[in-house]
Design brief:
Radius of gyration: 23 Å
Strand content: under 5%
Largest sheet: none
Shape: globular
Number of strands: 0
Oligomer: single chain
């Protein structure tokens, strides 16, 4: 049997829903079958990580044990001490496996990616969040079984959304009332159907049917136009943006829907991002759990440190430095290629420009009109800025210019 990628085909959902049936029936009658939950998790993870080549599964097991050692060692230490450098060392240790995996393509060393498996980034975000909240004192106790259940929650393991431990615990430790669960079931079915439309219809149309044809056409202008710029390249930009959204949003809807079937209210990851009126609004709507994770655990902590150490006096400069650091890290997280780094720098510049415009607009609110037209114009500008950033992110320019 080959590894089965979660949510990769309609057939997968038939098997998955059959497996979830006892969980659904139990919740309808006010019970959680925790032993069966564990059994279902083993089955799903087994098909995803141990089918055919078991290397991914072994890497997952090694990763979980490694993170448990790091987290529970820090938890034991934190009960008596609170040294910043011990905390920093624990965070660094927690991200070491992910760093190895990200460096693997750069170094071309097959032995360095010991922890390579689907979803390692999302599991690392969860592990780091636990360490940071242990340091903050918001997580004082956590059992090994609770950690494993949180980290290996199979609906979200490969593609998110990124849940928070305390929010997740609140759901899994309680059983929703029958009326509440019926609402969750309806919501789950709605999200599942929308996810099918997004991924298997719209995502397929833009990504499998249109994108390869437009790509060939755009590449045909590589040596005919300066930098290969053509209307076909513009078409590629919009087509790839649509594909990226519908495919990724489809995966996220599947994860939230399956979570709802299991009585867990996993947060939504997308909220009509292409209706954003500015780039900051976009990041509050696009890959929400990731952008909020970076905001809470990197940007806000960096700003707080700069304020506490009085490294920068100007709050504007402080915010701008925070944007550059934040989006550079996000770029490197996607990969060590020039277009991911440029993608991060582009969004940092977009955020800095957006903040400058909002400050200018606030000072001249009487002279600058605000109506339905200006709102639609703002949405149009933001949409095109975002689509251009996705063109950079796609790596197509690398192929167009250097291949």
């Amino acid at each position: 049997m080959h590894n089965i990628t979660p949510y990769s085909s309609p057939r997968y959902f038939i098997y998955l829903l059959i497996l979830l049936l006892p969980i659904i029936i139990g919740l309808l009658y006010g019970k959680r079958f925790r032993i069966y939950d564990f059994f279902a998790t083993i089955v799903i993870l087994g098909t995803a990580f141990f089918g055919g080549n078991a290397s991914q599964g072994l890497s997952l097991i090694a990763y979980v044990f490694f993170e448990m050692i790091v987290i529970f060692s820090y938890l034991r230490y934190r009960k008596k001490h609170n040294n910043f450098w011990v905390f920093t060392f624990s965070v660094v240790l927690a991200i070491v496996p992910l760093v190895f995996v990200k460096l693997d393509p750069l170094l071309k060393n097959a032995t360095i990616s010991l922890f390579a498996f689907m979803g390692i980034s999302y599991l690392t975000f969860k592990s780091v969040e636990i360490i940071m909240e242990i340091r903050d004192g918001t997580i004082k106790h956590i059992k090994p079984t609770e950690f494993v259940r949180f980290i290996l929650f199979f609906p979200t393991i490969t593609s998110g959304p990124i849940d928070r431990f305390r929010r997740f615990q609140k759901d899994v430790l309680n059983v929703p009332s029958r009326d509440e669960y019926l609402k969750l079931l309806k919501s789950a079915v709605d999200k599942l159907m929308l996810g099918f439309a997004y991924k298997f219809i719209l995502g397929y149309f833009f990504g499998t049917i249109l994108l390869p044809k437009i790509s060939i056409l755009a590449l045909s202008y590589a040596h005919q136009r300066p930098l290969g710029i053509s209307w076909a390249l513009v078409a590629y930009m919009y087509c790839y943006s649509m594909y990226l959204f519908f495919d990724f949003a489809g995966y996220s809807l599947f994860a939230v829907a399956i979570s709802n079937f299991m009585g867990v209210k996993t947060p939504m990851n997308f909220k009509r991002p292409f209706q954003s009126v500015n780039i900051k609004d976009f990041w509050n709507r696009w890959h929400i759990t990731l952008s909020f994770w970076f905001r809470d655990f990197i940007y806000m902590r960096l700003i707080f440190m700069m304020m506490k150490k009085k490294l920068i006096k100007s709050r504007v400069t402080m915010a701008n430095v925070g944007y550059v650091v934040l989006f550079l890290i996000m770029g490197f997280w996607h990969g060590e290629t020039w277009y991911y780094i440029v993608y991060g720098i582009f969004h940092a510049c977009a955020m800095i420009t957006n903040d400058a415009w909002l400050r200018f607009k606030k000072r001249h609110r009487k002279q600058i009109p605000s109506n339905r037209f200006t709102k639609y114009f703002a949405v149009f500008i933001t949409f095109n800025v975002v689509c251009f950033s996705f063109l950079i992110f796609s790596g197509f320019l690398n192929t167009l210019w250097f291949s």
